[in-house]
Amino acid sequence: RAAAQRRGSRPVAVAEGARGFDSLPDWRDSQRMKQVGALVGVATPFFRRHEGRAGAVTCIDGRAVVNFASYDYCGLNADPRVAEAAKAAIDLYGVSPSGSRLVAGCRPVHDALEQALARHYEAEAALTFVSGHSTNVSTIAQVIGEGDLILHDALCHNSILVGVKLSGAARRSFPHNDLAALEALLTENRGLYRNALIVTEGLFSMDGDVPPLAGLIALKRRFGCWLMVDDAHAMGCVGARGRGSFEAAGVAPGEVDIWMGTLSKTLAATGGYIAGSSVLIEVLRDHAAGFVYSVALAPALAAAAECALGLLTEEPERVSRLQANAAAFLAAARAAGLETGSAGPYGIVPVMVGDSLLAAKLSERLLSRGINVMPVMFPAVPMQSARLRFFLSAQHEAEQIVAAVTATADEMDSLRREGFGSAIPPA
Ligand code: PMP
């Protein structure tokens, strides 16, 4: 009751029946955001409908626009060989696996993909899940629990934070990529807990930078912790051959205890995976809720991802093109006076804006100039840290990159000169 009162709710007499969903604070929050948007003339930038394949160019409202909103980093979603692999799997196995892996969902394509992923990480085994989000939630909640400690980078993805919350472990977040702060937290806390798990990302999804992996490995060894790296965005973007954060850091992948990744980005499918020791994989296979109680990955997606992983290895020039495009974008943005934070030349470059509505308005103006890029705003990033997030692709042309940067700098200037944002009432 006390907790309910703190949340501003009140106990309901049974006779009153259930309250409407419009009594939820989340409803009020989204309405307030929409009202403020309408007041200053900004439509919601989200849920734009792409009318075909969203590559470096996409079709929105019947119009071809240059696309920086999709994370098909190496252009493999457009590769006919990947589509053929998916179609062949549908012909062989049907669209749905019609069961969980334990019951009726195992197909040879799952084994092929999991073996390929295990080889990629030089790991003993790998396991696939139906989504990257549930991979993080289920894995973290399974390997760590009450009496344990979890230390995660402050900028870790929502799926990591949800897993942490569900696990019941004590939680400490360390400032982004700050090894000294992590060391201090470990010195103070490690002895108080049974197991400790450090979690970071291989390429940060909002900032486009990479972690100090060698330093994290040294700390996890010194303090007797497990290290988990979410390489969802790093695969295909980071390292000379796009193998991921271990390649860029020059460390053996076996130094990381839990590799997590998604099939939804470079690997041109959807789903998630874990790679690690055979003991870890057996624990997850027998117990992780998002695996045991969920349907198997669709065979077509497993086949597509396996094909994409093979192509990534055979055609490293895709990675070089992507990284050259990211470097060109960064150089042009800096020359135009745009703030790109700590982003490196990988696949994600944020252009910092600050105010959420200004970021949404910029996105709207850029779309009208033929450029599709999404704003990222609170709560996905801290307050007043809204940004436009550009996903680069191996398929972007040099002129498209220059045009996007020029238009962004122009529109940012115009909106500031118009005084946009100064009249926005606080939320
Ligand atoms: N980890 C990170 C770092 C992510 O950015 C995302 C979402 N894009 C996920 C996990 C979840 O993966 P998925 O969207 O494939 O479920």
From TrEMBL:
<keyword id="KW-0663">Pyridoxal phosphate</keyword>
<dbReference type="InterPro" id="IPR004839">
    <property type="entry name" value="Aminotransferase_I/II_large"/>
</dbReference>
<dbReference type="InterPro" id="IPR050087">
    <property type="entry name" value="AON_synthase_class-II"/>
</dbReference>
<dbReference type="InterPro" id="IPR015422">
    <property type="entry name" value="PyrdxlP-dep_Trfase_small"/>
</dbReference>
<keyword id="KW-0032">Aminotransferase</keyword>
<dbReference type="Pfam" id="PF00155">
    <property type="entry name" value="Aminotran_1_2"/>
</dbReference>
<feature type="domain" description="Aminotransferase class I/classII large">
    <location>
        <begin position="65"/>
        <end position="406"/>
    </location>
</feature>
<dbReference type="InterPro" id="IPR015424">
    <property type="entry name" value="PyrdxlP-dep_Trfase"/>
</dbReference>
<keyword id="KW-0808">Transferase</keyword>
<protein>
    <submittedName>
        <fullName>Aminotransferase class I/II-fold pyridoxal phosphate-dependent enzyme</fullName>
    </submittedName>
</protein>
<dbReference type="GO" id="GO:0008483">
    <property type="term" value="F:transaminase activity"/>
</dbReference>
<dbReference type="InterPro" id="IPR015421">
    <property type="entry name" value="PyrdxlP-dep_Trfase_major"/>
</dbReference>
